[in-house]
Amino acid sequence: MFVRPIVYTYSSEEIALRKHCLQFLRFKNQVVWELEAEKVLVYLFSNIIQVIGRWSPKGSADAVTGVLNIKMSEKDMERAKSFELTASEITGLSWEDWFIYRIDKEKKDEIHSPDHFETRSS
To answer: Domains of the chain: which residue ranges?
Structure first.
């Protein structure tokens, strides 16, 4: 069964203020990575929000397209589904857990297992 998500995009103002850039601490040495988000997908029958964008080590020009999956509490998911928040307000809600995976269009046959991360930087 396919369920179409609610799609939120970032406004010009959010992009100008860099509210579409989310930062993460990755790996054991806690390297700062940044996701430059393009859109936020909110599913009505799930507690997962997907953020699609390009991610890379902060300051690096080498970026790949990826999907950030955010798990939220029921209360915050209800707020995200309310149609009253912007994309940056949704990604600004508290996250219970998250993982990100790579979408490599040049290597469609290669399988990328999800990388699980436990912290994000503010």
So the answer is: 6-117
Which residue, 69, 35, 70, is CA-closest to 54? 35
Rounded-to-integer distance, Cα 16 and Cα 85, Å: 18
Write down the residue that tokens 């990575």 correspond to.
33
Distance CA 33, CA 24 (A): 5
Q: Which regions of the chain are under pLDDT 50? A: 107-122
Please tell me the distance from the alpha carbon of residue 30 to that of residue 33, in angstroms, as a whole number.
9
Write the pLDDT tens digit of every residue in 93-106.
988 888 877 766 55
Whole-model pTM over 0.85: no
| C-alpha closest to that of 42 among 96, 89, 103, 100 | 89
User: Distance from CA of residue 53 to its chain's centroid?
Assistant: 7
The residue with tokens 């992009």 is 15
